[in-house]
Amino acid sequence: METVRSAPELRAWSIGEELGRGGMGVVYAATRRDDGTPGVIKLMRPDLAEADGRAVAYFRREMLASMALRHPHIVHATEVGEAAGAPFIVMELCEGGSLADLVARDGPLPAERALPMFEGLLDGLAYAHGAGFVHRDIKPGNILLTAAGAAKIADFGLAKAFESAGWSGMTRTGATLGTPAYMPREQVLDFKYARPGVDVWAMAATLYYALTGSAPRDFTPGRDPWLTVTTTLPLPVASRREDVPPALARVVDRAVDDGDGLPYASAAELRADLAGALT
């Protein structure tokens, strides 16, 4: 990674501490040398870039999605490119960390805080869907917070331009990627042809987590998590936390009930139902 960090293509940035890493790459804090603008640089692992063409394709998909989408509730990418043969993305810095970090540190959010946050996120999701993108990996770790507490959708690494035939073959038949705790059964069974409703379910599941500190389903250690998704139903919000307002709990329970398909086809539909949940 040091070779990539010092590559000429990144000389405009002073790259600082590592903020996190995953299967595909490493994320670093960075500062623009000319004006001191803070940012984040996501670098693909050079060994993976050399060895796995499919991984490169997914990373480049994130690059394209990140540059194409411009919304207050989507993490903004300012630059993409390749350094020492490894793709990279320069993004805005969200100093508040992830929603997963926030809930793990401070506990479940009060409804009065969670609801406005998710109304904004659903606006961002509706915008992405309108632009032709399905995220396919909405989860608490992919919701980032600014210093002021604004929430933004991050990591379009699995995003699919669902109207573009040119991208339709990116996922091999039978492949399932993503995070099972925040995927509806329909997505597990038919990942390749995921439509916007899977993201709406995942956003509802993420709201469920924000309110309760738990995913909608219980996952037994040692049991296949994909089997859990396809054979069990989400638990009611009230079984996790009794003080969530009943009207809000009813909307969230409906939104994550995937026993007979996806309850909401669009982010706008879920947002409309949530808007009246505290009145």
Give a structural overview.
This protein has two domains: 2-91, Phosphorylase Kinase, domain 1 (2-Layer Sandwich), CATH 3.30.200.20; 99-275, Orthogonal Bundle (Transferase(Phosphotransferase), domain 1). 38% of the residues lie in helices and 17% in strands. The protein has helices at 2-5, 46-51, 53-68, 99-106, 111-130, 185-189, 196-212, 225-231, 237-240, 246-256, 267-275; strands at 13-21, 25-32, 38-44, 77-83, 86-91, 133-134, 143-145, 151-153, 160-161. The strands form three sheets. Strands 1-2-3-5-4 form a five-stranded antiparallel beta sheet. Strands 6-9 form a two-stranded antiparallel sheet. The protein has a two-stranded antiparallel ribbon with strand order 7-8. β4 (77-83) and β5 form a beta hairpin. Keywords: ATP-binding, Kinase, Nucleotide-binding, Serine/threonine-protein kinase, Transferase. Residues 13-279 form the Protein kinase domain.
Keywords:
single chain, 279 residues, alpha+beta, Phosphorylase Kinase, domain 1, Transferase(Phosphotransferase), domain 1, 2 domains, 5-stranded antiparallel β-sheet, two-stranded antiparallel ribbon, 11 helices, 9 strands
